[in-house]
Write a structure and sequence with these properties.
Pfam families: TetR_C_46, TetR_N. It comes from Knoellia flava TL1. Keywords: DNA-binding, Transcription, Transcription regulation. By secondary structure, this protein is an all-alpha fold. The chain is 76% helix and 0% strand. The longest helix has 25 residues.
Length: 207
């Protein structure tokens, strides 16, 4: 098996093991046994359990970002901004529905903040920047200041994560209901701003 194929296999196995057992109770021996290999092979690819977790979360976020971009690209040009926003929210919820194992790992971040929190937070920030830049490609949103678009992306990510976690505790909540909850909470606030009234933010560091 080629190195890239082996790495994908190990990430698939590790994602499932982390999701089932949690970070603390997952061992490299357990991942190796599930993958049908020896433990040194995992260390050769990832170096440590901490780095294995970071790679699993990074891949989940990359897949989520790709799904979000595809959803935004599918909206017809010159559609209302609300349509783009709803498509972004729906793409989050559909990803979490489709990849529940990924999401369970994704939501373990707070539990392992001491272990790998800085690396994972950097991944989250990069995702928010990517979404903000993608918003900049949409004519109806491009006129908004970049800091506002970044704030929009950060708030969208955080709210979707928490609502998706809430759904794990309430399986009776459908995907459609979850999307409407997020839209009801966030959209009215975002819609109250226009490109002209959105607050300017000084990122130069000067007072």
């Amino acid at each position: 098996m080629k190195r890239e194929e082996r790495e994908r296999q190990l990430l698939d196995v590790a994602e499932a093991v982390f999701a089932d057992h949690g970070y603390q109770d997952t061992t490299m021996e357990l991942v190796a046994a599930k993958a049908g290999i020896t433990k040194p092979v995992i260390y050769d690819h990832f170096g440590s359990k901490e780095n294995l977790l970071v790679k699993v979360v990074a891949r989940a976020r990359e897949d989520l970002l790709s799904s979000t971009k595809e959803a935004l690209d599918a909206i017809p040009p010159h559609s209302p901004v609300e349509d783009y926003f709803r498509a972004g929210v729906r793409s989050f919820m559909e990803f979490f529905e489709r990849r529940r194992g990924s999401f369970k790992v994704y939501m373990q971040e707070s539990a392992v903040a001491v272990v790998a929190g800085q690396d994972i937070e950097q991944i989250r920030q990069a995702q928010a920047r990517d979404i903000a830049e993608r918003f900049g490609d949409i004519p109806q949103i491009a006129a908004y200041p970049l800091p506002y678009r970044e704030a929009m992306a950060e708030i969208m990510i955080a709210t979707n994560e928490r609502v998706a976690a809430w759904r794990l505790r309430h399986p009776e909540i459908t995907l459609e209901m979850a999307v409407e909850v997020v839209m009801a909470v966030l959209w009215n606030g975002f819609a109250s701003y226009t490109a002209d009234t959105a607050p300017e933010v000084d990122l130069s560091g000067s007072s």
